[in-house]
Amino acid sequence: MFDSVLDVLRESGGPGPAGAPDAAVEALVAEREAARKAKDFARSDELRKRIEGMGVVLEDTPRGPRWTRK
């Protein structure tokens, strides 16, 4: 949590190529995760496409989703 203040651990600095701030990506990733848990896979797929359109690579891991900038 200290990284939210110091901002030293993030792999990418600032907005990505499409100009989307990290907070917007995080919100969409969280919304997608909620859709997956609710078994709304159509919405989950729609959100994945939207996230990828922002220049983000989304990976589902056993510890939860992880994303990086392209």
Write up what this structure looks like.
The chain has three helices and two strands, in the order αααββ. It is α+β, with helices and mostly antiparallel strands and 70 residues long. The chain has one domain (18-69). The chain has a two-stranded antiparallel sheet with strand order 1-2. It is globular and about 25 Å long. The two termini are 24 Å apart. The model is unreliable at 11-17 (pLDDT under 50).
SSE inventory with pairings:
Layout: H1 3-6, H2 22-37, H3 41-52, E1 56-61, E2 64-69
Antiparallel strand pairs: 1-2
Helix pairs in contact: 2-3
Task: Tell me the strand order in the biggest sheet.
Answer: 1-2
Weakly predicted, low-confidence segments: 11-17
Give the oligomeric state of the chains in this entry, treating copies of one chain as homo and distinct chains as hetero. single chain
Mean pLDDT over the full residue set: 82
Taking the sheet with the most strands, its summary is:
2 strands, antiparallel
Whole-number radius of gyration? 12 Å
